[in-house]
Each structure stands twice: as structure tokens, then as C-alpha cells.
Amino acid sequence: MSEKSFFDRLVLCSDHGRVEFLNYLRNLLMIAAILGVAIAMFRLKRMSISEQMFYIVPIILVCLYAFHANLQLLINRCFGYLMEENRQIRLKLKLGNFHAREINKSILKHIWKNRRIEWLEALFAPFFSLGSMLIILTWAALYSDVLFKALK
Fold first, then answer.
1. Is residue 2 part of a domain?
2. SS3 22
3. CA distance 59 to 83
4. Is position 7 within any domain?
5. Residue 51: which domain range?
6. Which among 118, 122, 33 has a CA at the least distance from the CA of 72?
7. DSSP assignment, residue 49?
């Protein structure tokens, strides 16, 4: 049996991973649109800063929660099998009366030997998505001006 190439082992490059990542980006765009409209709406109403904070903080919190839920959905759908595999290994080793340190050491050995690329991808995916969320938030804040002028 031949060894898979680097790109064949990447989950987000597989058919299933691409679909899930595109769903993630689609949901992220909706979060940015909500924030952009909210910022433009508050600029139109000409409220004081304290009134704006009263209204905008809950919207920002809801958007942050939506971002977190969206990211969790991406990770669970793309990398859930890795967590299930580790859970199975942990259960087998617990039945053998191994100590927690030995269990963790054997799981890390298994990851390093068999699933190194997949776990690195699973670790970097949240950082990549956080960067994309920051870009989207910046975009929403910058283009709320354009929306504000169009609605005026």
C-alpha cells in the first residue's frame, strides 16, 4: 500500500472538507453582513455612545457566539473522527489499568506516528478561521460607511 501524499491527507482538501469549509465561509459572510448593517443602522440613528453600546454590545456578543458555533461545527464535522479515534484508544488503555500519564503518552505516540498532518491541520484551522473572522469584521466596519452613505 502506498503512502498518501501531503495534500491527500489534508482534511480540508478532501471533497467533504471543502464542502464544510465553504459552508463555514458562507455562514461567516452572513455574520459580517449583520455586523455591517448594525453599525450602519446605529450611525443613522445618531444615538449617544452609551445608547449605542446598549444596542451594539448584544449584537456583537450574538455574532461572536455565532462565530464560535460555526467554528465548532466546522471542527466537529471535519475532524470529529480524530477525537473519536483518541477516545477509543483511551477506553482500550483504561481497560488495561494503565495510568493517565501512560495513556496520554501512548495517544501522543499514536498521533505522531499515524495522524501527524491531520492533527496539525486540526490545530491550525481555528487560528486560520480566527484570522478570517478578523478580516471579515474589519471589512464589515469599513464598508458600513458605504452602506451608511447609500442609506442616507
1. no
2. helix
3. 33
4. no
5. 12-151
6. 122
7. H
Number of domains in the chain: 1
Residue 1 lies in a domain: no
Q: What is the pLDDT of residue 6?
A: 67
List, for residues 44-64, the tens digit of each pLDDT value.
Answer: 666 677 777 777 788 888 888
Residue ranges for the chain with pLDDT beneath 50: 1
Residue 145 inside a domain? The answer is: yes
- Contacting residues for 37 by C-beta, under 8 A, at least 6 apart: 144, 147
Sequence-separated (6 or more) residues with CB below 8 Å from residue 60? 35
- Which residue, chain included where needed, has cell 469549509? 21
Cα gap 50→128, rounded to integer Å: 34
DSSP output for 77-146: HHHHHHHHHHHHHHHHHHHTT--HHHHHHHHHHHHHHH-HHHHHHHHHHHHHHHHHHHHHHHHHHHHHHH
Residue type for position 99 = H
Q: pLDDT value at position 72?
A: 85
CA distance 149 to 20: 35
